[in-house]
Amino acid sequence: MQDKDALATLAWLVEAGADEAAGENPVNRLTAKPVAAAVSPNPVPLAPRAAPMNVASSSGDPIGNAMAVAAAATSLVELKAAMEAFDASALKRTATNTVFADGTAAGRVMFIGEAPGRDEDRIGKPFVGRAGQLLDKMLASIGLDRGRNCYITNVINWRPPDNRDPSPEEAAVCLPFLRRHIELANPGLIVLLGAVAARHVMGNTEGIMKTRGRWMEYRVGNAMVPVMPALHPAYLLRQPAHKRLAWRDLQAVAARMESLGLPEPAVRSN
Ligand code: URA
């Protein structure tokens, strides 16, 4: 194969979502036998693969571990460090980075998305790809800016391989961290971006098209905090006609922020 063909093939694989090598030696899967086995009587073993996805058997009680580790954190800094050191999540073993959060928790307006994608995994921050660019525009339209007065995280903190949906077990390991994350960030208003966030934070099993735009409440410490399920920006990129619904929901969020004095004045720039 010529270099330019090899490069084109590689670019196509990256475009298709393959972003890591599974072994040290190339395997031609188009031939009947693996290359190594065909040329050597002692097949060269593939590099060790990530541990099996059965989190329960690989670390005893990953959900219990997550609960204990999350409860012990007394600040966002401690929680982030604890999650970076946590080794009982199967997803973490295949992710490049722990994608904890971005923005300014002191603004007390919190956005929760689904899971990191390829760009987020590479950079280690939520919503930095195309959906993130749209989210930034949505935030700006209601006076929010992650660098100044709002805070963004995800339900899942480690990228599921090939952007597949996380399994219920994988999500369950992340949930104690998310609940503690919300407590420590202490938001005065929460926006849930998409069905996955609505399901895991509020237990909504109805579709997001039914629940979006309806105010709900979530307990943070002793306070009941307003929660708005909303359409996910990645969905809006696929269905731009639904941006008008998202705009309506954002207007409701802006009005509620106004009535609650959010974002916190201490971090308002004007
Ligand atoms: N989609 C999400 O839900 N979260 C991200 O961080 C990026 C895309």
Low-confidence stretches: 8-19, 27-59
CATH class: Alpha Beta
- Total count of helical runs of at least 4 residues: 13
Radius of gyration, whole Å? 21 Å
Secondary structural class: alpha/beta
How many domains, as an integer? 1
Could you tell me the number of beta strands? 6
Main sheet specs: 6 strands, mixed
Across the major sheet, the strand order is 1-3-2-4-6-5
DSSP strand content: 5-15%
**In angstroms, what separates the terminal alpha carbons?**
60 Å
- Listing every helix as H and every strand as E from the N terminus to the C terminus, the arrangement reads HHHHHHEEHHEHEHHEEHH
CATH homology superfamily: Uracil-DNA glycosylase-like domain
CATH architectural name: 3-Layer(aba) Sandwich
**Mean pLDDT over the residues:** 84
